[in-house]
Amino acid sequence: MPPPDKAFLDKVDAFETAIQEGALHVAADLDKELKETKGFRLGAGLTDRLARARAEMKRLNDWARWGGNISREELIKAAEVLKDAKMAMSELAQKVGSLRDRWKKLDTVSGAAPKALWERFDAACTAAYAPAAAHFKHLADERHANAAKGQALLDEANAEVGRFQVEGSHDWKHLAATVQRLTLAWSHLGAIDRKEKKRLDTEFHRALQVLEEPLGSRREHEREQREALIDEVRNLNPHDRHMLDALRSAQERWQHAAKALPLERKAEQALWQRFRAACDEVFNRRKESAHAADAERKAHQVAKEAICARLEQLDDVSNAPAALRQAASEWHAIGPVPRANEAKLDKRYHAAISAVQHKVDSARRAASVAQASRLRDKLRLVQELEDSVANGGDTSTDWEARWTALPALQPADLESTLERRFRAALDARNGNRDGYVTQLKANQTRLMDGLLRLEIVAGVDSGAEFARDRLRLQVEVLQTSLKSGQKPVTQFAQFLELLALPALSDARSATRLEHLYPRIGRDHR
After folding, report:
1. What's the burial of 111, exposed, middle or buried (CB within 10 Å: 0-12/13-18/19+)?
2. 257 backbone φψ class: left, alpha, beta (φ>0; ψ -120 to 50)
3. Could you give the 3-state DSSP secondary structure of residue 299?
4. How does pLDDT run across 353-372, given as a tens digit for each residue?
């Protein structure tokens, strides 16, 4: 006979290990398997190992009844470890139950445990089982809550049955929506105790059947009405001048019926597709007899496309207002275009108008910026000349040449106002300089006051350093504007007065005056 194989030897090792660890039930099972294994020659050494192991197992079994408390200590430790274990609640409950079963088996083998030991074990098992107990209680509470929800849905269904049976006329749309809502809510109910679920299901479906039967009959009637509308549309004469009115009436009746009682989704969709196909067929037959009208619409489209192209290619913004008026006149005089292209063509036309207007606005803004720049250059030249008069500056400057080199301002009153001021300063430089300097200094206060007033009227910020003076003047400006019998002075006229005022000004005042023009000049234009 051959010697034992590795599996047999591993089993012998496990047998000895189980005995060493006190796992007598495991050791007994392994011993039984070893005894049942035949066909090996054990040899003296292995036979001696098995004999010693079996003798030790017998000794341990003899002492098992006295060693029950030690095994119970192991069970207590196992229960205490379970308290902090992370596992599924069902697995936790199974393990705690297994520990309690093993305790009962020990009671059978080793006798009843001491009371103190039992109380420790029971407390450890109770603490370990607490999460599972709470979990199962939560599930039970959920089942009770779901049952309450189910009862509420059942009560609502019964109440709807009661209303339906006593009402003479019925709101079928409301009834259909209610049945659908209740059915959906019922399908979403969670777990319920089996006996209670069976009762609720039976009563709910009985109540729902009372509502669904007349609802089904009504829906069949509505389906027949929709079929009749489809036939009515199919029989329309496409050449009849009242065809569109008749078709519109059929469409309105269809919409009214669909709102009053929608059919089931698939049936409603299928009927609607057939109805829409019938409407399209009538329109198609009408189109077949309207080739001339189509050709006319296409000609109108070509004419309108030409207008769009003309506007899109317009580069001369000086003639833009007239071009826009002419385009609008021609556009509205042209008849309708094919409906399929109407929105696209309108969009192109309005986009072309917007593009032309954008070009005009851009040109105006560019002209405004250029005008403001020219105004700034001339104003600064005048202020530089006045400063030269006041401070006795370089007399070699050719002021006339510098003035002539700057382009003229538009409108003309801007140019004439600044030129008068320039000439006055130039004359003072060559004549009554002292009197002019006195005037320049005296007008500084008027300039500051005028700037504040005009900034208030024009809505331009004056800066934090002038906040107090601005607040004081705001009241005065308001009172002046409320006085009756006085013709209001325009902002541009006030701006011209400031331009005409010879006064020494610092860089801040000059900048404030320059910043007023973009706002006032825009409104004046």
Report:
1. exposed
2. alpha
3. helix
4. 888 788 777 766 666 677 77
- Is 102 exposed, middle or buried, given 0-12, 13-18 or 19+ CB atoms closer than 10 A? middle
| Residue in 228, 223, 210, 349 with CA at minimum distance from that of residue 278 | 228
For residue 218, give both structure tokens: 């009504």
Q: Report d(CA 499, CA 421) in Å as an integer.
A: 8
**Long-range contact pairs involving 246-253 (C-beta distance under 8 Å, separation at least 24):** 247/279, 247/282, 250/279, 251/279, 253/229
Question: Which residue in 499, 496, 521 sits closest to 510, CA to CA?
Answer: 499
239-266: burial string, b at 16+ Cβ within 10 Å, e else: eeeebeebbeebeeebeebbeebbbeee
Q: Tell me the per-residue pLDDT of 192-251, one tens digit each, with 9 for 90 and over.
A: 888 888 888 888 888 888 877 888 888 888 888 888 989 988 888 887 888 888 888 988
In the three-class reduction of DSSP (H, G, I as helix; E, B as strand; rest coil), residue 389 is classed as helix
Q: What's the half-sphere exposure (Cβ side, CA atoms, 13 Å) at 376?
A: 16
Mean pLDDT, range 281-290, rounded to an integer:
80
Q: Find out whether 250 and 232 touch, Cβ atoms under 8 Å.
A: yes
Q: Is residue 135 exposed (0-12), middle (13-18) or buried (19+ Cβ within 10 Å)?
A: middle
For the entire predicted model, the pTM comes to 0.35
**Is pLDDT above 60 for 69?**
no
State whether the Cα torsion 488-491-496-497 is positive or negative: positive
Task: Check if the beta carbon of residue 303 is closer than 8 Å to that of residue 334.
Answer: yes
